Amino acid sequence: MERIPQRLRRAQLERMHLPRFGQTEPRAVLPRQRHLLRQARAARRGLWLAVLTLPSLLVQACLLLLPGRAKVAFARGYWMLATRAIGVQVRVVGRAAGGGGRPVLYVSNHSSWLDIPVLGGVLPACFVSKDDVAAWPVIGTVARLGRTVFVSRNRGNTGRERDAMRERLAAGDDLVLFPEGTSSDGSRVLPFRSAFFDAAYGDVKPLIQPVSVVYDRLAGLPVSHASRTVFAWYGDMSLAPHFWQLAQWRGKRVTVLLHRPIDPADFPTRKALAQAAWQAVADGAAALRQNRPARPLPVAEPEIVGEPVFA
After folding, report:
1. Residue 18 in domain
2. 15: which of 39, 60, 108, 109 lies 20 to 30 Å off by Cα?
3. Is there a domain that residue 310 lies in?
């Protein structure tokens, strides 16, 4: 059979109103209609997130009054569902070191507020966050009910905040820490601040597990340098407009790369520990941004955690 010329085949697809590879809507949809569809999608996802959050706050408030780890499991389930509500698929490469009887301090790069629900749904741990988050409407309440450890980054409070982190680790809680101290544009990993690793040198020495987080798919296609700004939230960006724009997109995916845990006892200083953790996170993030195979040690098969059920 004679092959159909490329331009004729393209014309046939357009007449049939079929989308090409990578398109989120058919070509026949007019720009204004496409804009309305995307806004409706964002509104629907925002509504699902609100419906999920309000009753979850009440349940978690009750669980905090009870002993045991039900509050930890419920918080993880909430974050997992929140990520799905936003329409983000999570791919996990490697295994979390928690649950082995020794507390774990997960250290990760940070490029977006979306890192919180993503990592919260993957890791059974509490977050360490800057103290001004506690004053944010709704989000501050969610953070407190999630037993977040708030730090001010004020040198005068360093000792007290370090002790608070050590107490939580001694109590058996795992913690998620962003040692960059701020969020970035997602194109690189900023140097880790060694002061954040003080908590690893207390009476209870946790394992340190480096974690690389990269948003690598948008509209089903690999994320480029230009499109990485859809996910990145940094500087003086406002949260609500950023969520509104992000929620309009389909085909979003993030990869969480869990590296081999390291022992603080193997490093003579916190600076050496911070540098080793940074190197692992930076190398892993670079591989993911370049769509190269990510190979943590020990190597584990990629695991798809959930599908975007509200797409």
Report:
1. no
2. 39
3. no
Residues 250 and 219 sit within 8 Å (Cβ to Cβ): yes
Which tokens hold the place of 159? 């000792």
Question: Given a cut of 90, is residue 156 above it in pLDDT?
Answer: no
Is 12 a member of any domain? no
Q: What's the Cα-to-Cα distance from 134 to each of 131, 150, 243, 310, rounded to whole Å? A: 6, 8, 19, 29
- Pairwise pLDDT comparison (28 vs 147), residue with the higher score: 147
Amino acid at 109: N
Question: Residue 11 — pLDDT band, cuts 50, 70, 90?
Answer: very low
What is the Cα–Cα distance from 227 to 171, expressed in whole angstroms? 42
pTM, rounded to two decimals: 0.83
Task: State how far the Cα of 18 lies from the Cα of 259, in Å rounded to an integer.
Answer: 42
Assign 3-class secondary structure to 16-84.
CCCCCCCCCCCCCCCHHHHHHHHHHHHHHHHHHHHHHHHHHHHHHHHHCCCCCCHHHHHHHHHHHHHHH
Nearest 5 degrees, angle CA 253-CA 215-CA 298? 90
What residue type is 136 in one-letter code? W
Task: Indicate whether 25 belongs to any domain.
Answer: no
For the chain, the domain total comes to: 1
